[in-house]
């Protein structure tokens, strides 16, 4: 099994989840709000009041085939709007 | 002679405004950032305050609307304010293009076309403290000025950027309209307005029970919220400094210019003192709610550092401290006393 | 003739209820979901509102109890309401077994045996708006009706399911009782009731200082909470549609049937108009607090989609909009005017 | 060292932590609320007000021996009530 | 004879205090932990309450200060209270060294040198309920007593620990001073005090709008907060039991001893009944806000279990229930009635 | 690429982030509040009201060279104040 960690803006969460559903991910978990920094962006809780929100952390445990599909649907979102996605190994307890 | 009086008046107004609890709490938040004090209002508490403020201001507006009716200047004033939300971005865009690319210029312009609900609320408080009357219907534009500003912003991007953009093939206007009109906050203020209106007519007992919540409690929450906004604005101001002098000047001079236009239009509309000030605030304040959210989605090429930081880091504090009393002085000069 | 008047009355009551701020805010939340507006009240704000509401309603109940005393109908009414919490699940179970397995039937039954504190609060507001008096002791069953409903639900599972269940070996009744009686919300409402009672007698100064908090502020928070409940209910209603027509009918007809039983019992108990309505609400409302939590722990075989969605997605909105005034009409028909 | 990621309902958190303590886990961290979806369940923040809560994410860094014990105590909880548990490699910084 | 009356008086005072809503809600929280009830007030709600309470108590203090002025006993009383914050840790340290190492003894001492804002607030409520007047300036030490206590604590660590400590090379006193004076809560209470003072003079309209927020709402939030504190204190008490009998005795006897010193000083200062009680509370209460935070940063060798649990798990509940009325009895004995 | 998971007290978050910036981490994400237990400490949400706070979870995706520098700057903080840091493999989606 694989483990995918996605960190995206809360604003893109909906489209990321749609992509997960369409790629056949067996499930996912979402943690928010997440703050952070990228190479040239900076996200704090400060904009919470405005609805702009902060980031969300999405964890997906899935087979490698699902990742292939996600690569196609999610990478463009990350490239356009920002965010990171990393894959690691994971095995059920 | 008249100018001297007016100027003296301004100084008194500025003082009365700057030394009011709401502005002092704003400063308290800002100074905390400067001194690096460990003061933090964690999420989602600021959201609680902003939801409450929008709900209460909408409800109060609806109550006033039910009492005053929709006759007279109401429809025309609302219509003109919506028009202003489309015209102001055009002016801003021309100025911003001197230094910024199309994307950033359009995003900042949209921000200034729209409004800041909290600045509006602060202006209402100011009027109450000055015992100047105003009408409840002035709340309606708060819910109506976001969409035109966003749409004009996007049209500017379309016209201005020659090459095709990745997200824009068959660009989903539906999505944009949805985002601009069904933004949670716009929806809440509009909905609360309608509820305040309906309930005033059909459920006086309910309205009466609502009153302590929307009145007595209001100013304290505003102070609490402004404490947080002071923190946020000071953080954003640091960002703004990196963006350079042009944007700093823009973030102060543009609101003043928009206030002037607003004042002239208010005079042409024949608005009274109170309504004229609120109309000016609608013109001169800049959005940090629905517009940035829509811009992030539709113009990701623009850097949020620019459009959020200018609105929040400078225009917002300027309007809250000096702007409101300054514009009141403007109102006294422009509007004939008889109204 | 009498029927015609009663029906006309009902329509007026429905309108007065539906157009009150609390119900309108509920609709505002529900419509946000339908329009897919980006309105969200993030955790833990809804918890803040529900803690506050339970604390305030308990405290007010305790104050009333201290004023009215425990004589007369008090003990008997409370006892009968606890009995109802055990009887109603039995009726529900028989009906639900037509379509559902033992686990789901028992879990849904327990839900309907118990009560919805917010529906009770809304009914109190309704009575206040109608200037109909009621007694403070009617709050007591709010803290007492969860446990019997849960226990009857579990007995039904025991009797109904033949094969042994993994979790049920030496099934920890202690854990179940603990969960049902020391659920945080049940505990808070019971505790606040006791505090309101004690403080009324021994600390009038403290109670006086508490009053603005539990009275003035109450209705506004209720509206805020119902805004959130509108969102949740509309989301749950989507779920409910998937569960099919049987459960949809059940979630509307069962409360009405339970209301009828409640009305007849109220009449037998000789309750006045106000108390009779509250008694009916205790019978017809369904729990979405302690019971689902206990069911999740003790009957994980049951699908929460069924028992939560029916209570929240349909019974709750139904009671809040049409139910309360409808039951008031019922009260007018069943209860002799002299009381 | 191993890293164990558990995602369970907040309602089961107490028994999961008890299992961790009994298995001799040297420590753990808990993040909540977590929302998410499994193959046929769906958990939102919406039930926050009701005390039913959402999910919790538990991270445990431990030796492989601890995992052996956890397999016995935690897997039945996950099977009965739902939730996921995945193991990965991890080494101290 | 006089003693008998005084003792009888004490019992009445204890009862009046213990049966007030605020103390009862504290017990409700503590009992929830004992019964393992599933009652939880999730983050950041407790922070919301504490921010509000500090903001309101500071603002009210500022208002009172503006009304009463800075003359008479004001400056001297404030100065002496700051002195007490430095003297009390020295006494505590000598006692604590009997059982604890330098690090833990110093950290616990600093805790007891500083103050508990919520205990102070509760004492104000108690005075109001007893109709005993007090002065607004007594709030000022709340913002001033943290720093000296922290500094004395660190000096004790320096003097007491012979070998060099890793973090302490060129030990950043600047960082320590920053942490102690610009702790978010200390900053907020001081800032709100200044705002209340300024606004009272220059913005009476603003202050008037602030009043419902800082007065009407106050006691209810205090109860809500104390419900949470009851939960936290009971959890901490479990910790404290592990720490052994010495610390348990210390956490009860030390506040009483400090109260006695405080009472004698109050008498020497010629304070009236109300101010004397508040002065005693400043001496006898222990900090769980700025001091633990500073100790964690500067004396990580000390175990938080000791300094947090003693202050929160025992001193806090003791002062809230028995302490306040007990000290009031002390005031009646020590302070001449004529004042 | 490597993935670093740090769990530290919210009070040390600022200095940890400073260390990340100085070590040239390309970005990081922060989740809080996090509760948990170590071998002899126990952190709950209970002290939230006091400003003492709970823990924070910091996730960093970075090259191995950054980890070398972090080892020098962050390990002393963890040793003095407590907290854990674990490294795992991760590859971009
Ligand atoms: N190297 C990284 N490690 C961990 N989180 C990151 C990293 N880079 C970016 N992020 C997260 O992803 C968000 C978006 O980053 P960016 O794509 O640079 O705008 C940031 O706000 C961080 O929360
Ligand atoms: N494949 C997955 N990846 C990540 N999280 C999951 C996955 N499956 C389930 N979850 C989480 O575990 C919770 C319980 O899932 P379940 O066991 O299917 O009821 C869900 O609400 C998710 O938060
Ligand atoms: N083995 C572990 N696994 C996961 N988290 C841990 C572990 N040990 C410690 N922690 C986290 O790190 C924090 C500080 O631990 P300590 O360094 O033991 O004081 C704890 O409160 C936990 O949140
Ligand atoms: Na504008
Ligand atoms: Na019922
Ligand atoms: Na003290």
Structure description:
Chains B, C, E: Keywords: Membrane, Transmembrane, Transmembrane helix. Chains B, C, E: Pfam families: Sbt_1. Chains B, C, E: It comes from Prochlorococcus marinus (strain MIT 9313). Chains B, C, E: InterPro entries: Sbt_1 (IPR010293). The complex is a heterohexamer, with 3 copies of chain A (93 residues) and 3 copies of chain B (339 residues). By secondary structure, chain A is of the alpha+beta class. Helices cover 30% and strands 39% of the residues of chain A. Chain A has 2 helices and 6 strands; from the N terminus they run E-H-E-E-E-H-E-E. A 5-stranded antiparallel beta sheet of chain A has the order 3-2-4-1-5, with helices on one face. Chain B has 339 residues and is an all-alpha fold. Chain B has one domain: Up-down Bundle (Na+/H+ antiporter like fold). Chain B is globular and about 55 Å long. The two termini of chain B are 22 Å apart. The model of chain B is unreliable at 1-5 (pLDDT under 50). Classes of the chains: A alpha+beta (93), B mainly alpha (339). The B-C interface holds B 43-44, 47-48, 51-52, 55, 59, 178-179, 182-184, 187-188, 191-192, 194-196, 198-199, 202-203, 205-207, 209-210, 212-214, 216-217, 293 and C 15-16, 19-22, 24-25, 28, 31-32, 35-45, 48, 125, 128-129, 212, 216-221, 223-224, 227. Strand 2 of chain A pairs antiparallel with strand 2 of chain D, so a sheet runs across the interface. The site of one sodium ion has 8 residues of chain B, from helix 5.
Short key terms for the protein model shown above:
heterohexamer; A: 93 residues; alpha+beta; Alpha-Beta Plaits; 5-stranded antiparallel beta sheet; 2 helices; 30% helix; B: mainly alpha; Na+/H+ antiporter like fold; 16 helices; disordered N terminus; binds adenosine monophosphate; binds sodium ion; Putative sodium-dependent bicarbonate transporter (chains B, C, E); Sbt_1 (chains B, C, E); transmembrane (chains B, C, E); membrane (chains B, C, E); transmembrane helix (chains B, C, E)
């Amino acid at each position: 099994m694989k483990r995918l960690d996605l960190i995206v803006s809360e604003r893109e969460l909906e489209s990321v989840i749609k992509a997960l559903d369409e790629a056949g991910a067996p499930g996912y978990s979402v943690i928010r709000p997440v703050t952070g920094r990228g190479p040239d962006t900076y996200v704090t809780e400060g904009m919470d009041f405005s609805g702009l929100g902060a980031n969300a952390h999405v964890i997906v445990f899935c087979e490698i085939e699902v990742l292939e599909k996600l690569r196609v649907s999610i990478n463009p979102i990350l490239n356009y709007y920002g965010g990171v996605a990393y894959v690691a190994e994971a095995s059920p307890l | 002679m008249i100018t001297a009086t007016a100027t003296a008046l301004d100084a008194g107004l500025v003082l009365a405004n700057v030394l009011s609890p709401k502005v002092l709490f704003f400063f308290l938040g800002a100074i905390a950032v400067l001194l690096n004090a460990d003061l933090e209002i964690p999420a989602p508490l600021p959201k609680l305050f902003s939801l409450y403020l929008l709900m209460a201001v909408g409800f109060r507006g609806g109550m006033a609307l039910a009492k005053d009716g929709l006759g007279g200047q109401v429809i025309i004033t609302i219509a003109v304010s919506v028009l202003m939300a489309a015209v102001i971005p055009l002016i801003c865009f021309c100025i911003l293009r001197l230094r910024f690319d199309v994307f950033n210029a359009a995003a900042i312009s949209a921000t200034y076309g729209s409004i800041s609900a909290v600045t509006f609320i602060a202006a209402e408080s100011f009027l109450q403290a000055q015992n100047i009357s105003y009408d409840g219907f002035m709340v309606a534009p708060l819910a109506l000025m976001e969409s035109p500003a966003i749409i004009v912003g996007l049209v500017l991007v379309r016209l201005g950027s020659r090459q095709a953009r990745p997200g824009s093939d068959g660009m989903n206007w539906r999505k944009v309209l949805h985002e601009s009109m069904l933004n949670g906050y716009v929806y809440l203020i509009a909905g609360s307005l309608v509820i305040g209106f309906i309930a005033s007519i059909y459920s006086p007992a309910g309205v009466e029970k609502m009153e302590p919540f929307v009145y007595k409690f209001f100013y304290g929450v505003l102070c609490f919220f402004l404490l947080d906004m002071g923190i946020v604005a000071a953080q954003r101001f640091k960002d703004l400094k990196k963006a350079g002098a042009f944007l700093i000047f823009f973030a102060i001079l543009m609101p003043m210019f928009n206030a002037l236009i607003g004042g002239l239009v208010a005079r042409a509309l024949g608005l009274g003192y109170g309504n004229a000030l609120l109309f000016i605030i609608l013109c001169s304040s800049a959005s940090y709610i629905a517009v940035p959210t829509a811009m992030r989605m539709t113009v990701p090429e623009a850097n949020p550092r620019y459009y959020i930081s200018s609105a929040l880091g400078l225009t917002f504090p300027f309007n809250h401290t000096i702007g409101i009393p300054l514009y009141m002085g403007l109102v006294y000069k422009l509007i004939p006393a008889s109204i």
